[in-house]
Amino acid sequence: MRDDPKHRRVYLLANPDKSAAASALDDLKLFADARCEVVGVTSGLEGRNALAQQPDRIVVLGGDGTLIGVARSLKSDQVPLIGVNVGKLGFLTEFSIDEFKNAFDRAIADDELIDRRMALEVTISRNDVLVGDYVAINDCVIQAGPPFRIIELGLHVNGERLTDVGGDGLILCTPGGSTGHSLSAGGPIMQPGVDAIIMTPLNPHSLTHKPLVIECDASVSIQAIHVNEGTTLIVDGQVSCPLRRGDCVTVARFAADCLIVRNPDHGAWHNLITKLHWGRAPNLSA
Which amino acids are annotated catalytic? Predict the structure, then answer.
């Protein structure tokens, strides 16, 4: 559905740690005031502060990490996010400031531009007591940590034993997060709109433990059989919780999807081709 932009409520949010985001905030407010109803302007990363204003869009000025942090903070109350990149790569934050201004009316008024991306709920239980509950937009990673000995993890899917994997850890990610840590560890690239959970072992001590794609509604249970003092669960690279021997990490689809407004001037493969250079021929003249 495409509405009149003047009827849309927009909340502007900028990463206070990025000077370019802070300086762009005032400029975008002036630009947006004449085109829609600006219901809030904040320098911060807590998206839940915007919910009381019932915005139709939250415009996030920052980088991919900023957008992920805001989406995580919204929890089950997801609002379509427009990522305006003032960071580096800008894989999730698809708009430059100029691109956002040029596509402003469509970005805030055309609901057909909203992409739904599955998220993960990650819980940690210790002695049958819940000690951590997180939302992962991209991924959750178990890393061996100091003293950097091999750790052993027991994997179950929907209650059925899958395998025990020894190595440096394990990544579970969404398709939207497949181009992050998982890709660096040899995991597959997946279109963000695909519903699945990707499981990528980190440096497994076996030739047979390869990345695995499982159905989106599965529940993955990870038992900490042998871990190090520094073994840690890390969610989206932003929050962490130490793991102890016997802990159980459960990963399943989160109840709400993350909502991201795509750049209408970019094709489905734009970021993969232009930013990750997928499919580029080698430079044979070098």
Answer: 64
